[in-house]
Amino acid sequence: MAFAIASGAALAGAQAGSDAASGTAAASTGASTTNTRLNTRDKNNTADTPQAQSNSKADRDLLAAVRRTVVKDKSLSTLAHNVKIMVANGAVTLRGPVHDDAEKSKIETLAKQVNGVASVENDLDIKTN
Questions:
Q1: Per-residue pLDDT, 123
Q2: CB of 75 closer than 8 Å to CB of 102
Q3: How far is CA 105 from CA 9, 83, 120, in A?
Q4: CB contact set of 49 (below 8 Å; sequence gap of 6+)
Q5: Tens of pLDDT along 47-88?
Q6: Which of helix, strand or coil describes residue 85?
Q7: What are the distances in angstroms from CA 124 to CA 16, 22, 65, 112?
Q8: DSSP state, residue 36
Q9: How many angstroms from the chain centroid is the CA of residue 13?
Q10: Distance spanning both ends of the chain, measured CA to CA
Q11: How far apart are CA 49 and CA 12, in angstroms?
Q12: Is the distance from CB of 104 to CB of 124 less than 8 angstroms?
């Protein structure tokens, strides 16, 4: 048991060292490696987040269909594939960062094409760094 705890602590320490090293590299280049600013905004905002996602079967199925459609489009970046998608009563909300206006519009268009989507609220942000 003591070995498992010590191993876990060593693993956590190694991970923290790895995170610190990547943060230092990002700081020296001036580029952010995370979306911390956007995630902080979401945490303090009263807007819905994925944690508030409806648990109805229809909304979950529609969410899965929209996610599949977005991820299937290989012209989109990894950043775009990972946007937050929320569905409530057929209304889709898109949030998170994308690289440019083209990706922002394309994701909205893809979501609107999914059968069962009543409306789309496009709250996607253009990543500036």
A1: 93
A2: no
A3: 45, 13, 11
A4: 42, 43, 84, 86, 95
A5: 666 656 778 899 999 999 999 999 999 999 999 999 999 999
A6: strand
A7: 31, 26, 19, 15
A8: H
A9: 27
A10: 45
A11: 28
A12: yes
Write out the two tokens for 28: 């020296």
SS3 116: coil
CB 91 within 8 A of CB 122: no
Q: Which of 99, 111, 120 is nearest to 68 (CA)?
A: 111
Q: Which H or E element spans position 87?
A: strand 84-88
Q: For residue 23, count other CB atoms closer than 10 A to its CB.
A: 13
Q: What is the rounded average pLDDT of the residues 29-51? A: 55
Percent of the chain exceeding pLDDT 70 equals 59
Helix/strand/coil percentages in the chain, nearest 5: 55, 15, 25
Structure tokens at 46: 């009263």
Q: Which conformational region is residue 96 in: left (phi greater than 0), alpha (psi within -120 to 50 degrees), or beta?
A: left
The answer to whether residues 94 and 84 touch, using CB atoms and an 8 Å cutoff, is yes
Euclidean distance between CA atoms 65 and 117, whole angstroms: 10
